[in-house]
Design a protein that fits this description.
Elements lengths: L1 E6 L3 H16 L3 E2 L8 E6 L4 H17 L4 E6 H5 L1 H5 L4 E4 L8 H14 L48 E5 L1 E2 L10 H5 L3 E2 L2 H13 L4 E5 L14 H9 L6 E4 L9 H8 L4 E10 L3 H7 L5 H15 L8 E8 L6 H15 L3 E6 L17 H24 L5 E6 L7 E5 L5 E5 L8 E5 L1
Parallel strand pairs: 1-2, 1-3, 3-4, 4-5, 6-9, 9-10, 10-11, 11-12, 12-13
Antiparallel strand pairs: 7-8, 14-15, 14-17, 15-16
Length: about 450
């Protein structure tokens, strides 16, 4: 059986797709590229914007066009929100919602056996007309790596293994915030966490593969512990003790969940890098309150200031701050937008700004508000913040010129060069040297 994969959206989706791929390979299936015409296509969709939904539909149409007889399996956020719409698309065999993802491998392996008997026949049914009980294949590697064919707390474990140097490790899923503009709580469900023992087991498997860096991923990563007896700090401390992993990064954490205790522990000398990805969304308190964010600009600024004071100093690198911002939220006047610009430029001074134009999402409160912003205005504001981001990033990199930094060299080869990142996420390149791949090296910046 040949299977092809496509992932749209976030690192969390990438970790999940990679986990399914490993399970299929261990079951004897062959992963192929789309152009090689697969028997089964698995598409992990995104619905964070209207553009993401359009890309997801296009991937389904493309798979059906490439191989009209193939079975197309759709999962991800778009699958949860628009199930009936996707089920009606040509070629779609099954749609798996947020709490059904752990069933994907089992159901596909079952239908794969049917294919071998009668290619592309309708799956057999029981007396009541429903599908026959699923097989529960026992699949494992020699190293004892397990297949995540189960769900704990309504969430299944996942991590990526497509890169030699870095892995995205899923620790949490879902969100309870229900911000006015966001569909994530509807697409991913309520906040829930993987048991600590399962996360540590996955980290051990990652280390056994020789991967040096792990990025913790989740929908609301800092909310880890919801549904378990552990806290986010418990998780960080346990991961720090896993042998073989050299570096950890936190993919995204809400500012109100970054406690002084967490910062002090990271700063005490751990494997967690001076790199934070923190969503701001707006630098206007008026808009933050309107859309239901759980902090104001004063709290946000205090968290940034505390991190800098705790982690920076003589002989230490500056902390890299990547900040998420949404422009064009309903009601964002030019005056309110300028509040965001000033807050970023004069107060936060991040290393990078991830800028997103607001996308009107059906089913959210903000979609019904009358004060929507024209697309042309959103584009202008995106340009303003992207230019500011380029300026701030250049200043951040320039401030490290002449200093020493430790780089983890990656395996990607491009135009005779290789690259990697310092602890505080400064990109460095050098001539290709295969012997340096997946090694840490101190270099002059």
């Amino acid at each position: 059986m040949k299977i092809a994969f496509s992932t749209l959206g976030c690192k969390l989706n990438y970790a999940e797709t990679s986990t399914w791929e490993r399970a299929f390979l261990r079951a004897g299936w062959e992963a192929v590229k789309w152009k090689d015409k697969a028997d089964v296509y698995l598409i992990n969709t995104c619905a964070v914007t209207a553009t993401a939904e359009k890309k997801s539909r296009n991937m389904i149409r493309r798979a059906n066009s490439l191989s009209p007889d193939a079975r197309i399996i759709v999962t991800g956020c778009y699958a949860q929100l628009r199930r009936k719409e996707l089920e009606s698309m040509p070629g779609v065999w099954r749609v798996f919602g947020a709490e059904e993802k752990h069933l994907i491998v089992d159901e596909c392996l079952g239908v794969g056996q049917t294919f071998l008997i009668r290619r592309f026949a309708t799956p057999p049914t029981g007396d009541a007309g429903g599908p026959l009980p699923l097989m529960r294949p026992r699949v494992a590697t020699d190293s004892g790596e397990s297949v995540p064919l189960h769900s704990a707390n309504g969430i299944f474990g996942a991590y990526s293994s497509g890169e030699r140097t870095r892995s995205f490790l899923k620790v949490q899923d879902g969100c309870d915030n229900f911000c006015a503009y966001c569909t994530v709580p509807f697409a991913r469900g309520r906040s829930r966490s993987l048991p600590l023992c399962e996360v540590i087991r996955s980290a051990g498997e990652i280390a056994a593969k020789g991967i040096k860096e792990v990025v913790l991923t989740g929908v609301n990563t800092g909310d880890y512990g919801r549904g378990t007896s552990e806290s986010f700090l418990d998780l960080l401390k346990a991961l720090d003790a896993v042998p073989g992993i050299e570096r950890y990064r936190i993919s995204s954490i809400e500012p109100n969940l970054i406690t002084e205790e967490i910062v002090d522990w990271i700063a005490s000398g751990t494997k967690f890098q001076p790199h934070f990805h923190i969503p701001l969304q707006s630098g206007s308190d008026t808009l933050l309150k309107k859309v239901g964010r759980r902090y104001d600009t004063a709290l946000f600024a205090s968290r940034i200031d505390y991190i800098r004071k705790a982690m920076e100093g003589p002989g230490k690198p500056m902390v890299f701050f990547g900040i998420d911002v949404i422009v064009g939220l309903p009601g964002e006047t030019e005056e309110l937008f300028q509040e965001t610009v000033s807050f970023l430029r004069d107060v936060v001074k991040p290393s990078f700004i991830h800028v997103f134009p607001y996308s009107r999402r059906p089913g959210t409160r903000a979609a019904l508000w009358p004060d929507q912003i024209p697309e042309s205005v959103k584009k202008e504001r995106v340009d303003v913040l992207e230019n500011l981001s380029s300026q701030l990033h250049a200043e951040f990199v320039a401030a490290h010129k002449g200093q020493r930094g430790t780089v983890l060299w990656e395996s990607t080869k491009k135009d005779g060069t290789m690259g990697g990142y310092t602890a505080n996420y400064i990109r460095v390149e050098r001539p290709w040297d295969a012997a340096r791949v997946n090694t840490l090296e101190e270099v002059d910046l």
